[in-house]
Amino acid sequence: MRIAPLSLDDPAECVAAWRLQRAAYAREAALIGSTGMAALHERVADLAANRTERFDGAWAEPRTPQGLLGLIVVEATPEGWLISRLAIDPRHLRRGVARALLRHVVARHGAEGLRVSTGEANSPARGLYESEGFVIETRGPAPDGTPLARYRLAAPRLSG
Fold this sequence. Notes:
The chain has five helices and seven strands. A seven-stranded mixed β-sheet has the order 1-2-3-4-5-7-6. The longest helix has 22 residues, at 11-32. Helix 4 links the parallel strand 4 and strand 5 (115-119). By secondary structure, the chain is of the alpha+beta class.
């Protein structure tokens, strides 16, 4: 597996990212009982036009659009870096892809101010974040009313 920037200007990579996040967020929507996630309703054209977030992908070798295993997206905020998306191809869950992407972001951007949110009912994501040193900062509803847990990284665990 190799982690590298994902090019939304490349039509094949953009479509691969869109398909992956649709599958991942459909699974999460079923898990948390909500279809309100913006990324679930995003069109390919919306994704291609995104210039505010940084997309990195985890790729099987050799790198092809069909080999995209997962993606992580960060954006700068006044409080620090926000992980706005972490999506794994459902066929590749529980194989370390999400953990590798998360550690990649911590190594690249540092721990200070790093935040992420997930649905309260998304126990796999919550377990991952907590095992990597994230702590709940706040709890509250998303705009659609879905209960969210908002995390910040207290102390990264970059090994093990």
